């Protein structure tokens, strides 16, 4: 038990160190951007359009340190792809960490981290980011706890438990609503962009360091892989409907990036994550959505 506690503490310290390093790199980019503009104005030069300054908070779709299922020198996730896309590459402060559920992302320590990031003037040019990118909900459903929300195949159910699964969606919704409230208090007027993943394939494929996240629970409940694909499709369709309902409320200032149906089967590296080219396809959807909100800035 003592060893487990030590390992947990070391993991948290590693996460904190990584986020601190990202913050330092982001502030350095901000300093370069400010100095560039000051120099151009002082010398009568035209100041080019400011790139979008974004704050990202999410799970492994925003923080995937692998290349498919293999170790990588650099992350290959949506944010890693997005930073190199568009006519003017956005500058992104990424607070994301793989493995987080939406309730992890909105738990007290990470809310405090979000607030500190938003309130640090050195992170932004005009006092706050242009937009917040959020990736949350996938880990609430997937993983060892997936079995909680499934019927047993022998009981004649349809896969997703009709009482328990809607309550999970309500918990995910609560996390998003809490994020909107935090934004309204600390960065009023800043739009939030979220996404709805894509239709994951419960085939048991996983990297050596994590997973599988879907097939074991389905097998435990007596469901075949084919039946499992239909169940996962149903779960993600319901998840997307929950987010669309949030996006339909103007006061939420929430834009849902429609990502379901983007990936081909060959784009998937494992049950939950695409290869880099797949992440790039999803990032392209963000570029389009950001371009509609901020024409000429990406």
Account of the 3D structure:
- This protein is an alpha/beta fold.
- It has 2 domains: 1-48; 51-293, 3-Layer(aba) Sandwich (Rossmann fold).
- 46% of the residues lie in helices and 9% in strands.
- It is built from 9 helices and 7 strands; from the N terminus they run αβββαβααβααβααβα.
- It has helices at 2-42, 78-82, 102-105, 108-119, 138-141, 164-186, 215-220, 225-247, 276-293; strands at residues 53-58, 66-67, 70-71, 91-94, 131-135, 192-195, 254-257.
- The strands form 2 sheets. It has a 5-stranded parallel β-sheet with strand order 4-1-5-6-7, sandwiched between helices. Strands 2-3 form a two-stranded antiparallel ribbon.
- Strand 2 and strand 3 (70-71) form a beta hairpin.
- Helix 6 (164-186) packs parallel to helix 8.
- It starts with a helix and ends in a 5-residue tail after the last helix.
- The relative contact order is 0.14.
- The model has no long low-confidence stretch (mean pLDDT 93).
In DSSP terms, counting alpha (H) and pi (I) runs of 4 or more, how many helices?
9
Strands of the widest sheet, in order across it, are 4-1-5-6-7
Structural class: alpha/beta
Q: Please tally the β strands and state the result.
A: 7
Shape designation: elongated
Estimate nothing, just give the exact number of structural domains. 2
**How do the helices and strands follow one another from N- to C-terminus?**
HEEEHEHHEHHEHHEH
What name does the CATH topology of the largest domain carry?
Rossmann fold
How many whole angstroms does the radius of gyration measure? Answer: 20 Å
- The first-level CATH class of the largest domain is given as Alpha Beta
Low-confidence stretches: none
The share of residues in helices is 40-55%
Mean pLDDT: 93
The CATH homologous superfamily of the largest domain is termed: SGNH hydrolase
CATH architecture classification name of the largest domain: 3-Layer(aba) Sandwich
Distance between the termini: 50 Å
Q: What characterizes the major β-sheet?
A: 5 strands, parallel
InterPro entries: SGNH_hydro_sf (IPR036514)
Protein name: GDSL-like Lipase/Acylhydrolase family protein
């Amino acid at each position: 038990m003592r060893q487990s506690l030590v390992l947990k503490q070391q993991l948290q310290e590693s996460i904190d160190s990584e986020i601190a390093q990202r913050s330092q790199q982001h502030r350095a980019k901000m300093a370069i951007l400010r100095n560039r503009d000051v120099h151009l104005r002082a010398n009568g030069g035209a100041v080019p359009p400011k790139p979008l300054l974004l704050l990202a908070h999410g799970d492994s779709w925003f923080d995937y340190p692998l290349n498919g299922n293999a170790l990588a020198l650099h992350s290959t996730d949506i944010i890693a792809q997005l930073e190199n896309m568009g006519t003017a590459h956005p500058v992104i402060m990424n607070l994301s960490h793989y493995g987080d559920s939406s309730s992890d992302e909105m738990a007290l320590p990470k809310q405090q981290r979000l607030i500190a990031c938003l309130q640090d003037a050195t992170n932004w040019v005009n006092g706050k980011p242009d937009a917040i990118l959020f990736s949350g909900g996938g880990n609430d459903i997937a993983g060892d706890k997936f079995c909680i929300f499934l019927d047993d195949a022998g009981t004649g159910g349809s896969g997703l438990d009709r009482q328990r699964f809607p309550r999970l969606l309500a918990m995910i919704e609560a996390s998003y609503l809490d994020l909107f409230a935090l934004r309204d208090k600390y960065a009023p007027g800043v739009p939030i962009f979220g996404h709805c993943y894509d239709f994951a394939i419960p085939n048991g494929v996983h990297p050596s360091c994590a997973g599988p996240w879907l097939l074991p629970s389905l097998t435990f409940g007596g469901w075949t892989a084919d039946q499992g694909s239909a169940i996962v499709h149903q779960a993600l369709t319901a998840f997307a409907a929950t987010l669309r309902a949030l996006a339909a409320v103007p006061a939420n200032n929430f834009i849902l990036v429609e990502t379901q149906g983007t990936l081909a089967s060959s784009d998937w590296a494992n049950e939950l994550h695409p290869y880099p080219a797949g992440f790039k396809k999803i990032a392209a959807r963000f570029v389009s959505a950001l371009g509609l909100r901020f024409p000429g800035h990406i």
